Amino acid sequence: MVSPASPASGATGVNGAGSVTFRTDGTVDLAAISTSVSPPTPGRWSAGPGRLVFTPTGAFPPSTRVVISVSPAAAAVGDPRPIASVTTSFVTAPGSVLRLQQLLAALGYLPVRWAPAGGPAASLVAGSAGAQRAVYSPPAGTFTWTWSAPPAPLVAQWSPGNYTTMVKGAVMAFEADQSLAVDGIAGPLVWSHLLAATVGSGAGYTYALASKTAPETLSVWHDGTLVATSPANTGIPVAPTADGTFPVYERLATQVMKGTNPNGSHYADPVAWVAYFNGGDAIHYIARSSYGYPQSLGCVEVPYQVGKTIWPDLTIGTLVTVTG
Fold first, then answer.
1. How do the pLDDT tens digits run along the chain, 324 residues long?
2. Class (C level, CATH) for 2-91
3. Alpha-carbon gap, residue 159 to 30, rounded angstroms
4. CATH topology for 206-323?
5. What secondary structure does DSSP assign to 242-299, as a single string?
6. Beta carbons of 111 and 157 less than 8 angstroms apart
7. CA triplet 203, 138, 96: central angle to 5 degrees?
8. Please, are residues 127 and 103 in contact by the beta-carbon 8 Å criterion?
9. Are 211 and 225 in contact (CB under 8 A)?
10. What ranges in 31-147 are assigned the alpha helix state H?
11. Which of 45, 150, 264, 320 could be joined to 277 by an S-S link, Cβ 3.0–4.6 Å?
């Protein structure tokens, strides 16, 4: 008889780098059994008194349902009774946020760099078994800022081991570069691409800070250098621009924005250099006689030349902080 032992069938949050053990009567003859592992994962079967074990060479993918079966017609050594077919399944844990940050930093998607303790490790190269196991057990190492004087609101978004908006934005940027669905969630497909990646996009890191303190301004940094500071307009009191930090999720060179004004009338305004960051709120150009005080219905409005200058840097995943 064979039965699941560890992890228990139906378990969730399982360490994907660990072995899968079945209980057995006697010692199973490995030459007589038929097994299957889904998703297909390289590994080694071993048998001993009372146990049958599958050990992945690297690790099962994160956040993935794993199904392992042992087929009938295998007999225990010295025991003529057949082993009944048995299947076990479990769901692996999400990948480590700390390891996610290490990989994103190494690929240039964060304003910090990461270096493993003791220097580069051959066991962590892209696609290696060691790199797969590190998804669940991150190696030791050090993060350092690549910006000499990062703005305080950006610094507040950095927290090793925590899935902050900065991490979500970096995941979105990576997804966009890899032509994946952009949702900011590090699922199995994102991890698969991360583990295979050796270089990032090279686009650099951009951060935008909108201040609602009069006179209102928008400041944009790229790779630690302030590229623009301009008077800007945010939302009027009945339609304020929400405070917080949000990643850019859509970009349009031009658009006709349509909607309803607070008085019930409708508008259809031509705008340019649009970067949406929070629902219908976007950084964009719109023609105004002046800038620097609340005039919009939630967007951050800037002059034409400013919008044209910053738009190439406001890529998917760029963080926009609104404060004041």
1. 788 899 999 999 999 999 999 999 889 889 888 999 999 999 999 999 999 999 999 999 999 999 999 986 544 555 555 557 899 999 999 999 999 999 999 999 999 999 998 876 655 777 789 999 999 999 999 999 999 999 999 999 999 999 999 999 999 999 999 999 999 999 999 999 999 987 777 789 999 999 999 999 999 999 999 999 999 999 999 999 999 999 999 999 999 999 999 999 999 999 999 999 999 999 999 999 999 999 999 999 999 999 999 999 999 999 999 999
2. mainly beta
3. 48
4. L,D-transpeptidase catalytic domain-like (2.40.440)
5. PPEEEE--EEEEEEEEEEE-TTS-EEEEEEEEEEEEETTEEEEE---S--SS--BSS-
6. no
7. 75
8. no
9. no
10. 97-106, 129-134
11. 320
Q: Residue 32 and residue 45: Cα distance in Å, rounded?
A: 12
What type of residue is 130? G
The sign of the CA dihedral 219, 220, 226, 227 is negative
Q: Measured between alpha carbons, how far is 111 from 318 in angstroms, rounded to an integer?
A: 11
Q: In the chain, list all ranges with CATH 2.40.440.10.
A: 206-323
Q: Which amino acid is at 1?
A: M
For 173, phi then psi, to 5°, come to -65, -40
Which residue ranges does the chain devote to CATH 2.60.40.3780?
A: 2-91
Tokens of 273: 């250099």
Q: Work out whether strand 266-278 and strand 250-260 pair parallel, antiparallel, or are unpaired.
A: antiparallel
